[in-house]
């Protein structure tokens, strides 16, 4: 079903290959990522993981790609005003479900590869690092015989409310001596959540992107109030 209503727990009917979109708490990096794009139905989303089955997810998060118990993944979510973790569960439309096994195999092969904090697109034959949505996009690209299932989108480092480059990103790329990759092909978990290839099957919590002004102060499991 689409347009699922908010729930309090992730249901037991998760299937391997489901995508778990999250408003992940933490520091300023998590906050600024949530300020770039709005996700499905306006939700604030800054992270995505791939459900691997048996209560585990595969995610690219500092410092590397790894498997995480589902409960630990959920515990890193911001909670909404009703105490619900902000997680959106989506599933591939049935016409694409045959791609899931190969996508999972690819994701498994990336375990222990470093996280990419600079969000560079590396089209080399042997990828050296991944950020969260990039791993998902390329896992399903690999499963789809090299054709993008989820199309890349232009990257942006501008606050969606003001249209201005965010100082965090200006400082970040100056510190590593690189130009901001504004407009280059890439991905973002919020935009990925809007794909018409996905169906929303469960929503845990809800937090509109436009209200995410204080996320940088939130610790895992804390409540946005």
Protein model, in words:
With 225 residues, this protein is α+β, with helices and mostly antiparallel strands. It has one domain (6-213): endopeptidase domain like (from Nostoc punctiforme) (endopeptidase fold (from Nostoc punctiforme)). It contains 6 helices and 9 strands; from the N terminus they run ββαβββαβααβαβαβ. It has helices at 28-34, 70-75, 100-109, 132-143, 167-175, 189-193; strands at residues 6-7, 19-22, 47-53, 56-61, 64-69, 87-92, 153-154, 185-186, 198-204. The strands form 2 sheets. The chain has a 7-stranded mixed beta sheet with strand order 1-9-6-2-3-4-5. Helix 3 crosses helix 4. The longest helix is centred in the middle third of the chain and has 12 residues, at 132-143. The protein starts with 5 loop residues before the first strand and ends in a 21-residue tail after the last strand.
SSE blueprint:
Blueprint: E1 6-7, E2 19-22, H1 28-34, E3 47-53, E4 56-61, E5 64-69, H2 70-75, E6 87-92, H3 100-109, H4 132-143, E7 153-154, H5 167-175, E8 185-186, H6 189-193, E9 198-204
Parallel strand pairs: 1-9
Antiparallel strand pairs: 2-3, 2-6, 3-4, 4-5, 6-9, 7-8
Helix pairs in contact: 3-4
CATH H-level homologous superfamily name: endopeptidase domain like (from Nostoc punctiforme)
Would you state the CATH class? Alpha Beta
Q: Can you list the strand order of the major beta sheet? A: 1-9-6-2-3-4-5
Helicity level, as a percent range? 10-25%
**Beta-strand residue percentage:** 15-25%
Distance between the termini: 29 Å
Helix-and-strand structural type: alpha+beta
The overall number of domains is 1
Q: How many DSSP E strands?
A: 9
List low-pLDDT spans.
209-225
Using only C-alpha atoms, the radius of gyration works out to: 16 Å
Instruction: Specify the number of helices.
Output: 6
Q: Note the overall shape.
A: globular
The average pLDDT is: 86
Q: CATH fold name, please?
A: endopeptidase fold (from Nostoc punctiforme)
